[in-house]
Amino acid sequence: MKPISIAATAPHAEAGPQPPLSIRGMTVSYGQSPVVFSVDAAFPEGSMTAIIGPNGAGKSTLLKATLGILRPLSGTVTVHARPLNDQRHRIAYVPQRASVDWDFPTTVLDVVLMGLSRELGLLWPVRSRHRQKVLDCLARVGMAEFADRQIGQLSGGQQQRVFLARALAQDADLYVLDEPFAGVDAATEKAIIAVLKTLKAEGKTVIAVHHDLSTVVDYFDRVLILNIRKIAEGTVAEAFTETNLQAAYGGRLATAQMGALG
Amino acid sequence: MLWQALTLQLGYNATLVAIGAMLLGIAAGVSGSFLFLRRRALVSDAISHATLPGVGLAFILMVALGGEGRNLAGLLAGSAISAAVGLLCVQWLTRNTRLAEDSAIGAVLSVFFGFGIVLLTVIQTMQAGRQAGLDSLLLGATAGMLRSDAILIAAGGALTLVLTLILRRPMIMVAFDEDYAAARGLNVRQVDLATMALVLAVTVVGLKIVGLILIVALLIIPPVTARFWTDRTARLWLLSGVIGGLSAYTGAAISASAPQLPTGPIIVLTSFALFVLSLAFAPGRGVLAAVLRHAAFQRRVHMRQGLLALAQGQPIYERYTIRLLRRAGLARADGVATEAGRARAAKALLDENRWDILRAMPDHEAAAALYDGMRPIETVVTKDQLTEIDARLPAPREVTA
User: Fold this and answer.
1) A-proximal residues of B, 33-72, CB under 8 Å
2) In this structure, are strands A48-52 and A91-94 parallel, antiparallel, or unpaired?
3) How far apart are alpha carbons A170 and A134 in whole angstroms?
4) How many CB pairs lie under 8 A apart between chains A and B?
5) If you count Cβ atoms within 10 Å of the first and of the last residue's Cβ in chain A, which end, N or C, has fewer?
6) How far apart are CA B196 and CA B176, in angstroms?
7) In what order do the strands lie in the sheet with A229-235?
């Protein structure tokens, strides 16, 4: 068995002085068995990181605990070296598409308007500049003409793009996405990755749970390989290796997928 | 008499009661919408049944202190406290035991209601209890309502409505996407608690008019009815408020003209009538619309299949298809295409071939995704794209009759 890396024993030399997001000693459990155990990670500014690992490795759980959606057993999260709760406005979260009821009586426009909730507060009326902002964000994901549709009438890929537009409306600098490419059509995958690459070019930080090993090299510049514990973290060149993938996936890694390694 | 009641000509008190009921109904419809959107509608049932012990205890306490046991404000305060305790019990059971919420609701509802009934029975035997009329709080009654009671109900309804509108954005966000709301820093538990508190307020304020057994209906039926008519959140709660207000107003007015009728059931029956109308006739989500849509769809499928069969010279076996083609003048009774039928069949086949090409073109995925076997291709591509597609068509063949 591999030795367990205990929190705070491995400082992140390569991370900049104040990484946009850093996680220390994160442990989450449902009942008695941990689903994420003592994970440290730092995500440097302007990087694009894929969180990969087999099913049940705790990828989504790690994200949710990091953002305070789940209460972790232990662990601290800092955003630009400050506590998460002061910095929430700098984070845009794109949840899994399956996590909401798409028969909910609301329109594409109204969903993206939720991204402006900080500006709108409880009672400020929605003005034409807000509406314009929403349409701009929708246009960036190629969904502008769908603004008035009920969300249930959209295809899966379109729904995912609406979620991304809502995140864009927040004007955040850290984007956290949970399986953005799961079950979407090829056109949507292209549209989403184009938007994410633009964000990265603007110096924003992107973190995504990702399940398709064959596209890791093309889409991302860093990986965090997870299987309850952290297996590896670093640039694609140094961390996305056969040894690390074997350690994470074990026998579940099909030989075909190994071809993805550049 | 009924008309006079509905047009507020039964005197000052009846008018006040009707207006109070209407405000309560609006508040119930609007706050119920957010409960409905959060899929927690049944919690209101636990809350309302848990008011009863509070009513009994408040009565006993007020009498023991030498006061007037029937003081509505006192009874409502007591019911609010015991409803809150009931709500906390449901939450505690759901969070800290393996019981699911529905089981917790059932347990709390029956225990609290049973305890309340015991208390009412005890009160009936008390000297001061004979005239209490507390059982009117079960089904609601507007007869003999004091002016101050009506004002209390109107003010309570209006206040709850205002608070609900102030909190609507966080409530909608939590109802639609709990995880996203939490990631934005909203405290989901507090928002849920606020929603429940609003529902509790409506329940308590509505005890006298609707009664605790049926207040659930005023919270749930209006949003469910409104859902038939709209796909927008803002319209849902607005419409739900209108339906709730209308039902409560009608119920209170009818009950004022016929005092022996309990108010709660009339309010519920009124809203139920609106629900049935919506269920049957609403465009889009209504039953009738769904049946008609299905029939039209079936007709289009048969028509298309028939035309493609004609174009490819295949026999048609389905009688319904032949009947459709015949009625449209496209085929004879023996299934042979007419002149017009041959033209339409050729067009259908051309369409199908064009779709095949479109679906193989990687640049037109979005348009190709609209393929359903029936949509005319001209409606999804531009003229230029159509020319591009036609250039790839195989050489035209003779369509066999």
Assistant:
1) 37, 39
2) unpaired
3) 10
4) 76
5) N
6) 17
7) A91-94, A174-178, A205-209, A48-52, A222-227, A229-235
- Token pair 């404000």 in the structure block, residue: B73
Closest CA to A77 of A22, A36, A35, A28: A22
Q: State whether residue A218 sits within 8 Å of chain B by CB.
A: no
Please state the φ and ψ torsions of residue A52, each to the nearest 5 degrees: -125, 160
**Domain positions in chain B:** 2-278, 288-391
CA B198 vs CA A94, A118, B44, B158, B226: distances in Å: 30, 24, 10, 12, 20
* Min distance A241 CA to chain B CA atoms (Å): 32
Q: What's the fold here for domain B2-278? A: ABC transporter involved in vitamin B12 uptake, BtuC (1.10.3470)
Min Cα distance B340 → chain A (Å) is 36
Query: Nearest 5°: phi and psi at B216?
Result: -55, -40
Q: Which tokens sit at A112?
A: 């993206």
pLDDT of A103-119, one tens digit each?
Answer: 999 999 999 999 999 98
Residues of A in contact with B179 (CB under 8 A): 64, 69, 93, 95, 99
SS3 A37: strand
User: Please, which residues bridge with residue A30 across strands?
Assistant: A33
- Token representation of residue A17: 């002085």
In a domain, A8, yes or no: no
Query: Rounded to the nearest 10 degrees, what angle do helices B12-37 and B188-206 cross at?
Result: 150
A5 domain residue, yes or no: no
pLDDT at A186 over 50: yes
State both tokens at B218.
Answer: 């005023």
Q: Which residues of chain B carry a pLDDT beneath 50?
A: 401
A150 CB near a chain B CB, below 8 Å?
yes
DSSP state of B364: G
Question: With an 8 Å Cβ cutoff, is B233 touching chain A?
Answer: yes
**Residue A12 covered by a domain:** no
- Is B360 near chain A, with CB under 8 Å? no
The phi and psi torsions of A42 (rounded to 5 degrees) equal -135, 140
Point out the residue among A68, A100, A152 whose CB comes nearest to the CB of B177. Answer: A100
Q: What percent of chain B shows pLDDT beyond 70?
A: 94
Q: Within 10 Å of residue B133's Cβ, how many Cβ atoms? A: 12
User: Tens digits of per-residue pLDDT, B292-315?
Assistant: 999 999 988 888 888 888 888 888
Domain with A192, as residue range(s), is 21-249
Amino acid at B369: A
Q: CA B298 → CA B291, B311, B314, B383, distances in Å?
A: 11, 20, 20, 29
User: Which of A62, A103, A122, A168 should one mutate to test binding to chain B, selecting the residue with the greatest count of B CBs within 10 A?
Assistant: A122
CATH number at residue A126: 3.40.50.300
User: Tokens 């949840």 sit at which residue?
Assistant: A95
B101: its two tokens: 């919420």
Residue A28: strand pairing partners: A36
Burial A64-88 (b: 16+ CB within 10 A, else e): bbbbbbbebeebebbbeeeebeebb
Q: Is residue A165 part of a domain?
A: yes
pLDDT of residue B131: 59
Per-residue confidence (pLDDT) for residue B5, from 0 to 100: 65
Residues B235-242: contacts with CB within 8 Å, 24+ apart? B236/A105, B236/B33, B236/B37, B237/B29, B237/B30, B237/B33, B237/B34, B237/B168, B238/B30, B240/B29, B240/B30, B240/B32, B240/B33, B240/B36, B241/B26, B241/B27, B241/B29, B241/B30, B241/B33, B241/B161, B242/B26, B242/B29
CA dist., res. B83 & res. B49, Å (int): 8
Q: How many structural domains is chain A composed of?
A: 1
